């Protein structure tokens, strides 16, 4: 909360003083959303999570013929939580299923990010009917409290984290929002 | 800590980080669930927690929330679960090491899909490896069990 107040004090200044500050913040946000650590579970209606990383070569479908189904949690076949159990104990051994303190799942299908352009993801994130009904402050709040997001920046073991830091990502979300949520192509 | 396995309460004195599989096999002597890979890639350790298939090698016992059922509690020799009966009918097992996990995964799957297609069976059971390659018989047994459960 203190951080939020601090940012709101600074943001109007930086947004006006620095032309295009909102777009610059957006470009950093897009580097996060398009990173495989995040995009691999923000997949489209085929509901198949992806694997990638230094030990995988090209991005590939999740092993074991896994599909998360329309439920996006695997309820139709094998639940994600069959292996990605909900626990505070991380699972850092290479090739073990990561754990978070919450239900492992795909993001809702309308939040498809994998392979999407900066403009596409940007417009999706600023439209409340496609972003879970969230204002930019609520988006930032979601980032601060979601176990998945925290894990993405600190996935443990030899897994490659999302770029930048969680705090930086939250700040970029607030800066982008305070600048009016500009998107490329506006 | 306390846990309930196959309807019986057990009191155990272990570190909460200990995987459920270790608790079952080494602490409680319930050896139906097998150790295969230890990293949730083979499915040999599959048990049910409140009816849902879980890889017991990945579940720290401190995070266990629910009742555990192992192959020993799924059915009995006198009253086999439909999937166990179908397993025998189709003589699925070759070496048999994976079958405990296969059967537990199949039983949980039939609870959510009572008339699966071949493709759906392949989707649901591909996370359970069989090094003997008995997959065609596994698929046939799952279909037979589904048909038998539909009659019941």
What can you tell me about this protein's structure?
Chain A has helices at residues 2-17, 21-33, 36-39, 118-126, 136-145, 147-153, 166-178, and strands spanning 50-53, 57-61. Chain A is mainly alpha-helical. The two termini of chain A are 31 Å apart. Chain B is an alpha+beta fold. Chain B is 39% helix and 12% strand. Chain B contains 6 helices and 5 strands, in the order E-E-H-E-E-E-H-H-H-H-H. Chain B has helices spanning 20-27, 71-74, 82-89, 99-112, 118-125, 135-151; strands spanning 2-5, 8-11, 46-49, 52-55, 68-69. In chain B, the strands form 2 sheets. Chain B has a 3-stranded antiparallel beta sheet with strand order 4-3-5. In chain B, a hairpin with a 2-residue loop joins strand 1 and strand 2. The mean pLDDT of chain B is 97. Chain B: It comes from Roseovarius aestuarii. Chain B: Keywords: 2Fe-2S, Iron, Iron-sulfur, Metal-binding, Oxidoreductase.
- The number of distinct structural domains of chain A comes to 1
Percent range of helical residues of chain A: 25-40%
Q: Note the gap between the termini of chain B.
A: 38 Å
Please identify the top-level CATH class of the largest domain in chain B: Alpha Beta
Biggest contact: A-B, 24 and 24 residues
The CATH topology annotation of the largest domain in chain B reads as: Ubiquitin-like (UB roll)
Radius of gyration of chain A using CA atoms only: 17 Å
Mean pLDDT of chain A: 90
State the helicity of chain B in percent bands.
25-40%
If strands are numbered along the chain, what order do they take across the biggest sheet of chain B?
4-3-5
Secondary structure tally, helices of chain B? 6
CATH architecture of the largest domain in chain B: Roll
Pattern of helices and strands of chain A = HHHEEHHHH
List low-confidence stretches of chain A.
3-19
Signal peptide (chain A): 1-17
Keywords (chain A): Signal
InterPro entries (chain B): 2Fe-2S-bd (IPR002888), 2Fe-2S-bd_dom_sf (IPR036884), 2Fe-2S_ferredoxin-like_sf (IPR036010), 2Fe-2S_ferredoxin-type (IPR001041), 2Fe2S_fd_BS (IPR006058), Beta-grasp_dom_sf (IPR012675), Diverse_Oxidoreductases (IPR051452)
Pfam family, one (chain B): Fer2_2
């Amino acid at each position: 909360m203190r951080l939020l107040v601090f940012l709101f004090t600074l943001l109007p200044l930086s947004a006006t003083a620095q032309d295009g500050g909102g777009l610059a913040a957006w470009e950093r946000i897009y580097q996060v959303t398009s990173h495989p650590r995040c995009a691999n579970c923000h997949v489209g209606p085929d509901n198949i999570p992806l694997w990638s990383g230094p030990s995988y070569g090209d991005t590939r479908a999740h092993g074991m013929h896994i599909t998360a189904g329309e439920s996006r949690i695997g309820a139709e076949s094998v639940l994600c939580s069959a292996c990605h159990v909900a626990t505070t104990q991380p699972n850092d051994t290479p090739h073990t299923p990561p754990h978070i303190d919450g239900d492992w799942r795909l993001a809702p299908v309308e939040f498809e990010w994998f392979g999407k352009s900066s403009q596409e993801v940007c417009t999706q994130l600023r439209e409340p009917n496609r972003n879970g009904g969230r204002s930019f402050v609520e988006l930032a709040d979601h980032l601060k409290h979601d176990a998945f997001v925290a894990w993405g920046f600190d996935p443990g073991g030899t897994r490659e984290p999302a770029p930048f830091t969680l705090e930086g990502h939250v700040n970029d979300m607030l800066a982008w929002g305070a600048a009016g949520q500009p998107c490329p192509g506006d | 800590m306390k846990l309930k396995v196959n309807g019986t309460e057990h009191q155990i004195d272990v570190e909460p980080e200990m995987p459920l599989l270790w608790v079952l096999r080494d602490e409680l002597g319930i050896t139906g669930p097998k150790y295969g890979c230890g990293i949730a890639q083979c499915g040999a350790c599959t048990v049910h927690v409140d009816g849902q298939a879980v890889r017991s090698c990945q579940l720290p016992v401190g995070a266990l929330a629910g009742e555990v059922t192992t192959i020993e509690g799924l059915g009995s020799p006198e009253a086999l679960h439909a999937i166990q009966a179908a397993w025998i009918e189709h003589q699925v097992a070759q070496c048999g090491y994976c079958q405990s996990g296969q059967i537990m995964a199949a039983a949980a799957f039939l609870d959510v899909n009572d008339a699966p297609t071949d493709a759906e069976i392949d989707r649901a059971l591909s996370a359970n490896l069989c090094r003997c390659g008995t997959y065609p018989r596994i698929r046939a047994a799952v279909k037979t069990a589904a048909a038998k459960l539909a009659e019941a």
